[in-house]
Specification:
This protein is of the alpha+beta class and 302 residues long. Helix content is 32%, strand content 25%. It is globular and about 55 Å long.
């Protein structure tokens, strides 16, 4: 979940053939679209149709989608298109790579804490059961189908579907340049774009400015908007509110996953992981301290 970075496009030499700016509600959040070049109206329509297609397949808020049917199947296999099996495979791979800090099978834990319904505190027995029904190891992918080994296990798409959707939207907008702001996660392509990252203690203030090159995405995670809603798969409980993390990556999916995983790891372990893996990440702690990797510092506007 983002703390809404501020986007300020760089000046670009030569006026574009056409520009389009629009804002819509999509996947339960705000989508800002800025397009430049020929055919921007048609490209905008393609973007919205593509995001609708993804939501109709993967949203777990709609009980009629394939992913919701997988959650409700009580361990039985559910047929899925190759695209969604590949996406779930990528999510499982990220879970392994981050040592479980990111996990796509946390639906039962989210339900236990009431994350989607205003919040609650589960009993010790309920929390223990939810922890045993969570974890990417419970998701089994087979040719043409997927299943969840525990009948109470459930996919939770909140930590990665938005990033995947940004990548898909950029692909269907081929022939244009511009940027997308999807609930605070930015993806820019074509001309470089300036993106301001908000301060952890004052979301109305820009702490520093990055220059995103072609195809790069910026995602941020913290508790400023929704309280302690990010769960730690290792403990099953909410992560502490230590500040916020901002991550820039070569794809929307990678940035989305990493902002969640690094927030879960925290500013100490997360910083070491990001530095060791060459990730562009900044940890903005309450009180003003900032820890940034070399890859992140290289993107800062001079």
């Amino acid at each position: 979940m983002s703390f809404l970075p501020l986007l300020l496009p760089l000046a670009v030499l030569g006026a574009p053939a056409a520009t389009l700016d629009r804002e819509v509600l999509c996947m339960g959040t705000r989508l800002g679209i800025h397009l430049e070049g020929p055919g921007v109206t048609e490209a905008s329509g393609r973007i919205l149709r593509e995001l609708d297609r993804i939501e109709r397949a993967c949203s777990t808020w709609d009980p009629g989608t394939p992913w919701s049917r997988l959650n409700a199947a009580k361990g039985a296999p559910v047929n899925l298109d190759a695209e969604w099996l590949d996406l779930l495979g990528a999510a499982k791979a990220w879970s392994r790579r981050t040592g479980g800090a990111f996990d796509p099978v946390l639906g039962r834990l989210l339900a236990a804490w009431g994350i989607r319904s205003g919040g609650r505190v589960p009993s010790a027995a309920e929390l223990d059961r939810a922890r045993r029904a969570s974890g990417s190891a419970l998701l089994v992918l087979e040719p043409g189908s997927a299943r969840l080994l525990d009948p109470e296990a459930a996919l939770e798409e909140g930590g990665f579907l938005k990033g995947y959707a940004l990548d898909a939207a950029r692909r269907v907008a081929a022939g244009t340049s511009g940027w997308l702001d999807f609930g605070g996660q930015i993806l820019a392509w074509g001309a470089p774009r300036e993106v301001g990252v908000a301060d952890a203690d004052d979301r109305g203030a820009t702490r520093f400015t990055l220059v995103l090159p072609d195809g790069m995405s910026l995602s941020s995670s913290g508790c400023a908007e929704r309280g302690r809603h990010i769960l730690d798969p290792a403990t099953g409980g909410p992560c502490p509110d230590w500040g916020a993390v901002a991550v820039a990556a070569a794809s929307g999916l990678d940035a989305d996953v990493l902002s969640t995983a690094l927030y879960v790891m925290g500013p100490d372990r997360g910083f070491l992981w990001a530095a060791d893996h060459g990730a562009a990440a900044a940890f903005l702690l309450h009180g003003g301290e900032v820890r940034e990797t070399a890859a992140f510092a290289a993107l800062k506007a001079r």
